[in-house]
């Protein structure tokens, strides 16, 4: 079902969000010496490299050019043994679904225990203000189920999990080595700062707003000001900017804050090229 869902999103969401100035994915490239990303239309998947180990964060769409673009970065799909999943939406798990190209069949997946209920079929994912149910996701990889606040290590890389329900019931964000926070679909970075993610796609918008405020409080309590790497709107290392509008929603079909830097149709990735992927580090926002 992943391939059909991917093609459906590419066609229908391109129509729905064209001109709305919502999605601002990074092009394929390196953010710094540790973090790289691949662009898949509107979405980014990330890679964290330390020593001989590369961890993948989210698995994107069922996307035919993934191996090619990973090659631009010098990353071999067969080297990926660990994938952190923020949530199970089509644009975050497509490359590990049963009908995918199978690039990561040997990789171990890390997913929140609550989010796993979507994968077992106990819960169905609803979007577009609960009007549409997403297809059931089937994944056969080995899974490790995670809990809020859990910390563990992979080859000397420290990973902490924070549960941020709202967009999905079990959405997780991952803090790696205390410096990089991979936020999935928790934060939407607008021209004037971060908002709670797109309202039409949330299970519970009020819960999403509360979760974002709680995440800020947890980080502040520990004096952690990491780099924030989002699934669809780039990155920032400006803590204040990231949480500037944490109590507001990104509402694409109502009065909202436009971002003129966003592409008219982010599903058009013609500017994502191998040459650009090698032209220097990718710039952040709010700096």
TrEMBL record:
Pfam annotation, one family: Lactamase_B
Gene3D superfamilies, sorted: Ribonuclease Z/Hydroxyacylglutathione hydrolase-like
Segments carrying the region annotation (Disordered) are 256-287
Q: Which residues form a coiled coil?
A: none
Q: Metallo-beta-lactamase domain location, by residue?
A: 42-232
Could you tell me which PANTHER family the record lists for this protein? METALLO-BETA-LACTAMASE DOMAIN-CONTAINING (PTHR42951)
Name of the featured protein: MBL fold metallo-hydrolase
Q: Which organism is it from?
A: Faecousia intestinalis
Q: What is the lineage of its organism?
A: Bacteria, Bacillati, Bacillota, Clostridia, Eubacteriales
């Amino acid at each position: 079902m992943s391939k059909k869902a991917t093609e459906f999103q590419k066609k229908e969401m391109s129509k729905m969000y064209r001109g709305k100035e919502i999605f601002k994915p990074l092009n394929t490239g390196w953010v710094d010496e540790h973090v790289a990303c691949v662009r898949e239309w509107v979405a980014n998947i990330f890679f964290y490299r330390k020593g001989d180990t590369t961890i993948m964060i989210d698995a994107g769409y069922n996307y035919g050019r993934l191996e090619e673009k990973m090659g631009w970065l010098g990353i071999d799909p067969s080297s990926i043994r660990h994938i952190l999943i923020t949530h199970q939406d089509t644009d975050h798990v497509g490359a590990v679904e049963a009908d995918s190209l199978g690039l990561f069949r040997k990789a171990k997946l890390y997913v929140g225990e609550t989010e796993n209920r979507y994968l077992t079929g106990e819960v169905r994912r609803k979007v577009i203000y609960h009007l549409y149910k997403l297809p059931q996701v089937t994944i056969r990889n080995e899974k490790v189920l995670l809990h809020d606040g859990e910390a563990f290590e992979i080859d000397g890389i420290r990973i902490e999990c924070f549960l941020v329900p709202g967009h999905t019931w079990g959405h997780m964000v991952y803090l790696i080595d205390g410096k990089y926070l991979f936020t999935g679909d928790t934060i939407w970075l607008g021209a004037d700062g971060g908002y709670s993610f797109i309202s039409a796609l949330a299970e519970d918008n009020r819960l999403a707003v509360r979760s974002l405020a709680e995440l800020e409080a947890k980080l502040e309590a520990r004096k952690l000001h990491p780099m924030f790497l989002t699934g669809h709107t780039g990155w920032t290392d400006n803590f204040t900017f990231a949480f500037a509008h944490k109590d507001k929603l990104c509402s694409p079909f109502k009065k909202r804050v436009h971002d003129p830097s966003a592409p008219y149709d982010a599903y058009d990735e013609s500017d994502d090229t191998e040459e650009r992927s090698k032209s220097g580090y990718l710039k952040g926002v709010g700096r």
